[in-house]
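Subject: sequence -> structure tokens, single chain

Hey, anyone have a minute? Need the predicted structure for the following. Not urgent.
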Amino acid sequence: MKLSVSGRAMAAGAASVVLLISGGSIAGAASTPSVAAAPDIPVAGVKAHLTQLQSIATANGGNRAHGRPGYKASLDYVKAKLDAAGYTTAIQQFTSSGRTGYNLIADWPGGDTNQVVMAGSHLDSVSSGPGINDNGSGSAAVLETALAVSRAAYQPTKHLRFAWWGAEELGLVGSRYYVNNLSSTNRAKISGYLNFDMIGSPNPGYFVYDDDPAIEKTFKDYYAGLGVATEIETEGDGRSDHAPFKSAGVPVGGLFTGASRTKTAAQVTKWGGTAGQSFDRCYHSSCDTTSNINDTALDRNSDAVAYAVWELSE
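Reply:
Had a minute. Here:
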């Protein structure tokens, strides 16, 4: 998740496309629940991706930041997994702060391309650490969900698209570039964008975006089925990659487990954990490693990603 405006330098972005992303489409929420069809996402698989991202950061100066070798290596890792699983992948290139950045877009063949359901996460870290919770957690969960689509040979009514954004930490640069370079026709085809940024915080809360009502209800229904209370997400409102989509009129939603804000005693009563401590004490720090993940939160939220993708695309 990017820093607030007061805590970061705004990034400029003159950009060029390496591979122009063809517009997709996705319509409104499904009318019939498909919870039975949604697979259980193995948390071991999600954690295996986090281990790889940690190794990439360790081998590349301790981070996976925009314009650094660790970011491109992270993108190459994700792309190789998707290519092997049968996705049509495309790389979109842009420039920010004098460095080249990349978005990765993956389309699952089939489905009505006039109704596109899209799920995404930012792949870059800050320069001060490997970014395993922020945002390896979201990136790994979206990747494992995409691979689950392939394993299930899922053929939804709507078209599925997955995305990994660059330079989010510099001001949502990659996702904004993607949205701004879609034609108005292709933007209108996106029936929903689901965003996952920090979903494995070590002292977690369970926060749901309160943007599009149908998408919000989908996530709340999932958590109600687990008997887990949720709260509306406010800490990161407008500070992650759903914001450019929302500004363009695309319905958005997502999940979050908390960053630097402090967990209250009332929240501990609901969720456990430690009162008076940040949801993520290693937010934007060098200690945001594979040790900085709550497995239960990561497991629940990864399953929620799949639940929403299946529910909204059938």
